[in-house]
Design a protein that fits this description.
Pfam family, one: BcsB
Largest sheet: 7 strands, mixed
Number of strands: 16
Radius of gyration: 26 Å
Organism: Kuenenia stuttgartiensis
InterPro entries: Cell_synthase_bac
Shape: elongated
Strand content: over 45%
Order of helices and strands: EEEEEEEEEEHEHEEHEHEE
Subcellular location: Cell membrane
Distance between the termini: 9 Å
Number of helices: 4
Helix content: 10-25%
GO cellular component, one term: plasma membrane
Low-confidence stretches: 1-6, 13-18, 258-273, 277-285
Mean pLDDT: 80
Length: 285
């Protein structure tokens, strides 16, 4: 009977950003069914898009740009499109029958965007006459073209707390958009071992991300701006960390540490290092 000890170290190394990171995502990707347009019909209607804010993001600026088309039958003085964030109105647009198409660019105050899920709503009140009217007449409609609309977010990364409990929610957070990114640092493993063990770890990460899109990469050193996972035999892991200036007490078991001086030289804003062991029983007959 032989034991193969696989050592896994997670180094959540995030480069210090002199400027905020920026992501731009089409609005339709936030909708539950990936709809390309939103039709608001009758004298009043509302549609809400859930937008997530990850635990580790500090929002500095958010700008939304969207296109709309409204019916040429509407009365401008009685027809309005209101944009709300978590029920707070941030914009009002008069719906004109003379200029029935438009593009709106607006800033969303970061204070309105909470960590977790936020609601961006488009609500209309629209009329075609000053007299009695059919509340759902064919001429009462406004369409938001979400496939041509963009949400642009500028953010900085919060420091990573030195707590193992942050791994499930803070680091592998399904609210991160447009996708997660994880890098494996691997050496000293055969191709078969790498595929096997990386597959096991990647499956666990995908589970934490709630099976949303995650991009994985492999390198021989720490990759900046990405969460890094060391994957290899015990000697490789310990040698790698010692070269980065991380003090290791081999008899102490798991290690929880902050940035070492060498890791900081790689512009690591904050790192959380945890070492765990996986023992695989191999039987020989």
């Amino acid at each position: 009977m032989k034991q193969l000890f696989l050592c896994i170290a997670t180094i959540f190394c995030l480069a210090h950003l002199a400027h905020a990171a920026v992501v731009e995502v089409p609005l339709y990707k936030f909708t539950n069914t990936l709809v390309k347009s939103i039709d608001l019909k009758c004298i009043s209607a509302e549609y809400t898009i859930p937008v997530s804010v990850p635990e580790r993001w500090e929002i500095e600026k958010a700008v939304m740009r969207f296109q709309y088309v409204n019916s040429s039958s509407l009365l401008e003085n009685k027809s309005t499109l209101v944009v709300k964030v978590n029920e707070y109105p941030i914009a009002q647009i008069k719906l004109s029958p003379i200029v029935p198409e438009g593009e709106v660019k607006m800033t969303i105050p970061p204070v309105l965007l909470d960590t977790g899920y936020n609601n961006i709503s488009f609500a209309v009140t629209q009329h075609y006459t000053d007299e009695c009217e059919d509340p759902c007449a064919p001429g009462l409609w406004t369409t938001i073209n979400v496939d041509e609309s963009i949400l642009r977010v500028e953010y900085c990364l919060k420091p990573v707390p030195l707590q193992l409990s942050v791994i499930p929610e803070f680091l592998f957070d399904p609210k991160i958009f447009p996708h997660g990114r994880v890098n494996f640092i691997a050496e000293g493993l055969t191709s078969e071992e790498l595929i096997n063990y990386a597959g096991i770890v990647a499956s666990g990460i995908a589970l934490r991300y709630d099976y949303r899109q995650v991009f994985f990469s492999v390198s021989k050193d720490i990759k900046p701006n990405v969460d890094n996972i060391l994957l290899g035999k015990k000697d490789f892991i310990y040698d790698f960390l010692r070269k980065k200036g991380v003090e290791i007490n081999e008899g102490a078991g798991a290690l929880l540490n902050g940035c070492s001086p060498q890791v900081k030289k790689q512009k690591c804003r904050k790192s959380l290092i945890f070492i765990g062991f996986y023992a695989e029983q191999q039987a020989f007959f």
